[in-house]
Amino acid sequence: xxxxxxxxxxxxxxxxxxxxxxxxxxxxxxxxxxxxxxxxxxxxxxxxxxxxxxxxxxxxxxxxxxxxxxxxxxx
Length: 75
Known about the structure:
Keywords: Membrane, Transmembrane, Transmembrane helix. This protein has 75 residues and is mainly alpha-helical. It is built from 2 helices and no strands.
């Protein structure tokens, strides 16, 4: 359900951004840089949850491995 929500949000965001991009492209090249920066910020926001989840998962995984490793060593 979260993936569907982010998927819909992703397409809505890019639809709005492309509309603004095609409106502002005739004004200046600065808006192209603004467009690129907004895309980078959106990707950072979009993947931050997944990166945080994977980092948390790997840290927990290694802590559990170390815990079991030391328990087997002490036995």
